[in-house]
């Protein structure tokens, strides 16, 4: 496929502006139907739910859309594919020659452009779906002329801000940004996805278009994508600055992006009663940030006093970039659980990073990756009734 | 500077072969003189020493050669610059068509080639010196034709093995390898250094040529470089397989490469007596792997019960790649120490990785990055004598 060159029409483009909504002005009546029994629902409006863990692990290595976690900040927008425009802007500096904020030069793409003008690539990324769409680096290069040379000063110092076509109460819309370096890294695998698991995105998962930033915290993978701006500073969105910059004491600190190493026991669950005297297979997943592999997973059945490596870890690198964006599924057979057993799991990534025993970074409670614990599992033999 | 194209002479090159030495055959009589008072010497032969920590931190942000740590596995070779040849080989697969081990095709460079044919770049990398020499990616591309496209299958799956022109008792020579992807990454900053802090390398630090692999454990930055082989598997050297593969239970696990996040208190030291009633400035350094920044450093003066962020952290990214290869220097003023005080420090990197409280990955004791502790510091007012 020939590299696509965006045709600069020289018309002046002004994308629509959202504005912050009052709580009472947010209309949830058009939210899509959901299979609530698959989820532990944390809040109905905005809809925030995580799958029941045994269901998550038992769906196989690819999570179906109706089991995949759902995290929202407002009503799900009701967007028609044929009406949707994606605006791409570039702001070449903070200020112009007069000291005023530098202007953003805008271009516009429709969904047909997005879906036909650049090669469609497919990546598997946590929390574990197959996503397809064009590479963000290809679009930014051909539409607004971002250089592809990783050493270029713009790549080193700029960011790409994303804005959703939605309404929320905290800001004009959901917004976030990632370093331009991540966006342009040929091994970074950032894509604009219009398909999840081989089908068009569902509304809950960002229809018609969302960003997928593998190896980064989920808050950067903006749904209902409407605007992207290449700019010299991070996004000033509430969701970038206030909710994920864990340490406001240091203004110079970048917001968090890459995930840290995490590990979860999916089965058995807290207080589960296992009616069998057979060995129990403990299962779960682990994932690290930045495309790093899961190197080791250890399980304790005595609350963390003694540890053994798990029996099996399966993790597949991306077939093109070779990066470990996908989760590792692990399991371990345990011969006998005691009723007072506390199961604890911890993982190490390929850079020797490991999970801490206790959550110790808790300015805002994000990125807590302390050892995962499951308590009060009771195993007893099954008698004839 | 025009990209240099290596002139393939088509002659058959056979690099010299080393062989494993008995302990009694290792001759240390030609080791260079050293300023022993700067060091805590762990072993005289092979010479292994680390600088006294207050000296390390008080030398400024760049460590002089005679304070920089020294780690060896045998006698320091006595190499003449004008006699030294670097051999570069490529093995295109594991086996040839007959099922025999695939041959290595060799090329040879002298030090004049290394020092004049490719642009000289300079990086600052832990444990903190300024290193200069050509980029390894430039050499591998022009000498043995390694593709520069990061998505190329060879880049994803191959390794570069390094061998030193030295003699050790564990193997034929010191050897190690890194993934070819790290070597070819334009932001990876792997260089072949012939200068340290603006002067030719000293013999203790690898004269005439060494590899510098920023963001990786020091064991990969091979000194006295004599051979490099691009090959489909990791180095089979003792120093790659046995001493840094922490978990021999899993053959499929790669050896460790990237460093994890570490932090050290350089001053005060264990059992130091501070004759002053003034506030004490605690100082140290922190560093993470993979070019990640140090995001936060916290100090406890009560053995880890309560924590405060330090007052100041200074870390400078590489001016070209923007990666954080250099250490972060931090300090915090403490108003009063108690004689029973235990100082503890811990750091977090920009991916949210943090140090664990206790060393928990100890198959071989490598990459222990538990919280660093300084005990029994005594502060008392200075009286007139």
TrEMBL record, chains A, B:
Cofactor needs: Mo-molybdopterin
InterPro entries registered for this protein in UniProt: Ig_E-set, MoCF_OxRdtse_dimer, Mopterin_OxRdtase_euk, OxRdtase_Mopterin-bd_dom, OxRdtase_Mopterin-bd_sf
Keyword Metal-binding part of the UniProt annotation: yes
Hydrolase found in the keyword field: no
Oxidoreductase molybdopterin-binding domain mapped to chain residues: 119-238
Entry's Gene Ontology BP terms: sulfur compound metabolic process
Residues of the Moybdenum cofactor oxidoreductase dimerisation domain: 257-375
Keyword annotations: Metal-binding, Molybdenum, Oxidoreductase
An example Gene Ontology CC term for this record: mitochondrion
Gene Ontology molecular-function annotations: heme binding; molybdenum ion binding; molybdopterin cofactor binding; sulfite oxidase activity
Domain of life: Eukaryota
Pfam family, one: Oxidored_molyb
PANTHER family for the chain: SULFITE OXIDASE, MITOCHONDRIAL, SULFITE REDUCTASE
Stated name of the protein: Sulfite oxidase
